[in-house]
């Protein structure tokens, strides 16, 4: 059996079971859902930085799903293409993923259906160095230990929208509960990231939050995946726009009319809250459900 081993355990999140469970529980406690949830959740957008920075937002999305659905058969987890340069979405189609909490199996039947649409290719190697999906799997393993997964690395092209539409059709035809997750961080702003279109300093970081990240959030909540992808290319407001576009397109296909923002923050705010220091760089994080 093909097993994908963790590559960022011990760095982005704890590498041993006890510490991993403890940090997941801490992430779940850090933020609470304060508004009513919809009757069903078909998808979500989560960040993928180290858990110290964005784990509580990812936990918020998985917690919302748990509150609405005690059991989920499969999580389709779409990730950013940080080190994959192919044009087609790449499916990890067989075997399982190892985590500090145990192994989570691939939904191979669903993988075959997705690949048969012709909108994605089987490519295990594309996932070898990609962390954006990996950091979500322990949350799935902890809250939904019986769930399977279907990881897909998604380049930022319009093919993401057509894949999402096909995925929505597949999910609609299935009797089991399937939830789509899109993994992306938002604007990487500052000299450390080589992105300073309005300069540097507090006002520039405020622009990244209130204008650039807002473009992403509004397109996601209004469920405009094409606009989100176009804006990402022009404004660099997300590192995994393809992953987000798949989820939005799938949710639209399933009849969802709008997204719900559960929380937003950025790495600079987290540094001030937890480490009592700031930075000239910042990365945005959003937790959204559909």
Task: Compose a concise summary of this entry.
This protein has helices at residues 17-30, 51-68, 108-116, 131-134, 137-143, 159-173, 202-221, 225-235, 241-253, 267-275, and strands at 3-4, 43-46, 74-79, 90-91, 96-99, 102-105, 121-122, 148-153, 178-183, 188-189, 260-266, 282-289.
Describe the protein in words.
It is a single chain. The radius of gyration is 17 Å and the shape is globular. The strands form two sheets. Strands 2, 3, 4, 7, 8, 9, 10, 11 and 12 form a nine-stranded mixed beta sheet that branches. A three-stranded mixed beta sheet has the order 1-5-6, covered by helices on one side. The longest helix has 20 residues. The protein has 290 residues and is α/β, with parallel strands linked by helices.
The CATH topology is given as Protocatechuate 4,5-dioxygenase, Chain B
Helical residue percent band:
40-55%
| Biggest beta sheet summary | 9 strands, mixed
The CATH architecture can be named as 3-Layer(aba) Sandwich
Main CATH class: Alpha Beta
Highlighted features:
290 residues; alpha/beta; Protocatechuate 4,5-dioxygenase, Chain B; nine-stranded mixed β-sheet; three-stranded mixed β-sheet; 10 helices; 12 strands; globular
Map the helices and strands.
Layout: E1 3-4, H1 17-30, E2 43-46, H2 51-68, E3 74-79, E4 90-91, E5 96-99, E6 102-105, H3 108-116, E7 121-122, H4 131-134, H5 137-143, E8 148-153, H6 159-173, E9 178-183, E10 188-189, H7 202-221, H8 225-235, H9 241-253, E11 260-266, H10 267-275, E12 282-289
Parallel strand pairs: 1-5, 2-9, 3-8, 3-9, 4-7
Antiparallel strand pairs: 2-12, 4-8, 5-6, 10-12, 11-12
Helix pairs in contact: 1-2, 6-9, 7-8, 8-9
